[in-house]
Amino acid sequence: MKKSLKIILTLVLVLASVFGLSKIRSAQADGATGKIQITSKTITPAKSPVDQYTDIKVDLTFNVPNGVKSGDQAVIALPQNLRFISDQEFDVMSPDGEVVAKAVINAASKSITLTYKDYVTKKSNISGSMSFAVRVEPATKSPSKVPITLNVDNNPVPVGEVDFVVNPGKLEKTLDKVSWGTETLADGSITRQYEVRVNAADAPLTEAVVTDQLQTEGMSYIEDSFEIPICKIKLDRKSHLC
């Protein structure tokens, strides 16, 4: 099986934001026609306070209003202080095994788009549920209370809030490497993302060169996946921005 590797080089001090896998659970009830109405919502952080590596599970139940055709869409968007880990696609299923909607997570736009299928023209009064995991962007003010407010078809839906304290990592290290997000693609290949954080210790560096050697057979770099953001974030020993 072909394996690929994504590398992200982060210069100076950029803290990685890693997000857990998202999943859409089966729709419940009889059918669907329309946009989406959130009927209940909860958040469950893996720990408190959260940091930029902590999964925050979001659970939603919803109704699909009657009167809409196949192809109609509902969009749920994250606020700027949250993020998904990667692009993903899911089927939202009915209890009888039919596809109610295709759910597409777009990490760049921070959105989930539900596109309803032919099932919605045959049934009515659908209810459903979905869950997904997000994490707080590392550039968020620390410490702070972070509101979890979703934008559902252009309507704000408050879900809750979490206490956030950024994890500065190992501040004494000049070079640090972390990885996350193993994903199997449609063609059977596997990708995994890596981040190399350079100079968290704020040491004087001149003409520094960073090298990385793959030691897994069959693994190669995805050349157009390299990103080199250049910025500087200073943190004190209590993880406060300064």
Short description:
With 242 residues, the protein is mainly beta. The protein is built from no helices and 16 strands.
Protein model, in words:
This protein is an all-beta fold and 242 residues long. It is 0% helix and 47% strand. The strands form three sheets. It has a six-stranded antiparallel sheet, with no helix packed on it. Strands 1, 13, 14, 15 and 16 form a five-stranded mixed sheet that branches. Strands 2, 3, 4, 6 and 10 form a five-stranded antiparallel sheet that branches. A hairpin with a 5-residue loop joins strand 13 (175-184) and strand 14. Mean pLDDT is 77; it is low at 1-34 and 238-242.
What is the CA-atom radius of gyration, in angstroms? Answer: 21 Å
Going by helix content, strand content and strand pairing, the class is mainly beta
Strand order of the largest sheet: 7-8-9-5-11-12
Largest sheet: 6 strands, antiparallel
How much strand?
A: over 45%
* Mean pLDDT over the full residue set: 77
Low-confidence stretches: 1-34, 238-242
Number of helices: 0
Categorize the overall geometry.
globular
Termini Cα gap: 47 Å
Order of helices and strands: EEEEEEEEEEEEEEEE
What labels would you give this structure?
six-stranded antiparallel beta sheet, disordered C terminus, disordered N terminus, mainly beta, 242 residues, five-stranded mixed beta sheet, 16 strands
